Write the structure tokens for this entry.
Amino acid sequence: MTKISLTVNGRLISAEIEDRTLLVYFLREHLRLTGTHIGCDTSQCGTCVVHVDGKAVKSCTMFAAQAAGSSVTTIEGLAQDGKLHPVQEAFREHHGLQCGFCTPGMIMTAVDMIARGAASDRAAIRRELEGNICRCTGYHNIVSAIEAAAGQMAAKT
Amino acid sequence: MIPYPFTYHRATSLAEAQSRLKGEAKLLAGGQTLVAAMKLRLAAPSDLIDISQLKELSFVRREGGTLLIGAGTTHHEVATSQVVAASIPALQRLAEMIGDPAVRYRGTLGGSIANNDPAADYPAALVGLGATVRTTRRDIAAGDFFTGMFATALDEDEIVTQVRFPVPERAAYQKFRNPASRFALAGVFVAKTGAGARVAVIGAGPCVFRVPEMERALDNEFRPDAIRDIAIDPAALNSDIHAGAEYRAHLVGVLARRAVESAVDNAAADHSGMA
């Protein structure tokens, strides 16, 4: 067992966990933050993407102990004061989902991509989505949502 | 999927990491291969020694004609480094082609080469550039470092600290991805260096290898046509459900010519190998 302290969605959390606890299980089962999904469990589908110290990473391929001392943001932490994040809003506006299972990972990846200035055009967005799989194959609207959010966020800054 | 139990340690110094590295203990850097292998229960270390927070392992630096990259430097850092882009653009592009953005944020140079997956990209760059691997104990020439499939010259308690890349006159990397897994079915790194041309191949065989016939031909004339008639013997290449050895042998020839073309004409897109 290991005692860890980390910040999750702005809240300081301390917990005693088994060393082999993956970050995604810590978030889902210890903190009950079930917005982060487990899809493939083999680091390919990206539905478990969260931000660790501002970087979009796959929480199924990282132990919770590795995140000790870090700041983690999950899909639950994006909306502020009851207002959706611009990327969430754009996914709703452009219907960037079908079944919705991949959506939390898509949005967390998109937020990181836009922050890096990597969502420059549709081809770039598709390249950047290499690690996120939508099995409904609804990529067209996902790309449209990210493109719109990137444009909107750039206009605001 | 849950790995077998182990004890986690976060190393605060290289010396501490080294002292803990014994028995069934393993180093944990980015974990993008090791954690996946542990979940599949293909690996069951007794202890994981996390070296990802050791700042001394994370750097990119140019010293004269040599580019130094710390073992803990992530693929993302290499792919976005101005120093790498200015010194060896082919290396920057290679890093940009590894895995996906989330994997590149965590995966490291040292982790990739110590694992020596036959389809990993970095071994091609190290052998193709004639790099030197510096460890806690010694310097190892890249050609001696990669000894076989998932095997290296590293001793059990030896840690890679940096890779020293001689800056070439020109270089390029081309790979052909499996359309599903995106791993390289074959990848070829070519370089024109002061000491001659170098051609290194990954993905096609069990371990990175050079192609001396191509290197001699490119020494005479560094152009794609110079290696057009050089065939790769499929006998020693991999054959699996993804591709047969003869197909891989053919790919190596095609990719080598594309890489030379791309090295000659820096404006040429380096992504033409993307299937």
In short: The first strand of chain B starts at residue 7 and ends at 10. Residues 245-264 of chain B form the longest helix (20 residues). Residues 267-275 of chain B have pLDDT under 50 and may be disordered.
